[in-house]
Specification:
- The protein is of the alpha+beta class.
- The chain has two domains: 2-154, 2-Layer Sandwich (Ribosomal Protein S5, domain 2); 162-271, GHMP kinase, C-terminal domain (Alpha-Beta Plaits), CATH 3.30.70.890.
- The strands form three sheets. Strands 1-4-6-5 form a four-stranded mixed beta sheet, with helices on one face. Strands 2-3-7-8 form a four-stranded antiparallel beta sheet.
- The protein has helices at 64-75, 98-113, 120-128, 136-139, 175-180, 191-195, 202-205, 210-217, 219-230, 258-263, and strands spanning 2-3, 6-18, 24-36, 38-43, 48-53, 82-88, 143-146, 151-154, 162-168, 235-238, 245-250, 266-271.
Length: 272
């Protein structure tokens, strides 16, 4: 069985408070985009995991696909050995949730292959054990996310009239590093209210709280944001804790790639 785990961007991100368990409560909107990995899982005689594409700096045992398999097998011994082949196209350390998507899709594929008959909600509960945003990829539709980023409400925002330019510079930002510089605070307006306004107003109202502490450490990210606006984006920002930056463009705007090509940035363009 083959699937294509896609990633997401964050439309705004407020870090509202530090939790007693050491995590942070947040407010954001997860929006799925088409950039994807390739995941193949087939039953076999002995368990195997292999990965190609973008190189990951982690042991196979630490890969979220393997962790998802072990998590589900612990509760369902009828799950047999499988051969998992992962082709990475989604950059890591980018705030795109690529690893979380791989984990969620692994759960869903095992559910299908071994006829476990788990509901979406049951799958989401397993996914929450693997990462705060993993559960999002079970239904894979825009959601307003709160608490650790794992409590969802339906969000009707649509960007179907726009295109996306995603830019990933050669900068890695770990999640602990990103959170170490933030100052939690309650936002004046929730993100749903901001997103209900015309997209042309988002530039002045829709913020990612991580940018305030990360941009001074990595000024190139702020430079890219300016490049996106200068190229015609109606909104630009950082996804999650970075380091990917994205611009949202009207479909009738021709996006010039020259400046991004000259800088050697990894970039992707797609219709939303």
């Amino acid at each position: 069985m083959i699937s294509n785990p896609n990633c997401k961007i964050n439309l705004g991100l407020h870090i509202t408070e530090k939790r007693p368990d050491g995590y942070h409560n947040i407010e954001t909107v997860f929006y799925p985009i088409a950039l994807c990995d390739k995941l193949e899982i087939n039953p076999c005689d002995t368990f195997a995991f292999s990965q190609n594409g973008i190189e990951l700096e982690c042991l196979a045992a630490d890969n979220l696909c393997v962790k998802a398999y072990k998590l589900l097998k612990n509760d369902f011994p009828m799950i047999g050995n499988v051969d998992i082949k992962l082709t990475k196209n989604i950059p890591f350390g980018a705030g795109l949730g690529g690893g979380s998507a791989d984990a969620a899709f692994t759960l869903m594929m095992l559910n299908s292959i071994f006829a476990l008959k788990l509901s979406d909600e049951q799958l989401a509960n397993y996914a929450r054990k693997l990462g705060a945003d993993c559960a999002f990829f079970v239904k894979n539709t825009p959601v307003y996310a709160t608490e650790k980023g794992d409590v969802f409400e339906k969000c009707n925002v649509s960007l179907s009239n726009y295109s996306l330019l995603l830019v990933k510079p050669d900068i890695f930002i770990s999640t602990p590093q990103a959170y170490s510089g933030v100052k939690p605070h309650k936002a004046e307006n929730d993100i749903r209210t901001i997103l209900s306004q015309p997209i042309e107003t988002w530039k002045n109202t829709l913020v990612n709280d991580f940018e305030e502490s990360i941009f001074p450490k990595h000024p190139l990210l702020n430079d890219i944001k300016k490049m996106l606006y200068n190229s015609g984006a109606v909104y630009a920002g950082m996804s999650g804790s970075g380091s990917s930056m994205f611009g949202i463009f009207p479909k009738n705007v021709k996006i010039s790639m020259d400046i991004f090509d000259k800088k050697g940035f990894t970039h992707f363009i797609e219709d939303l």
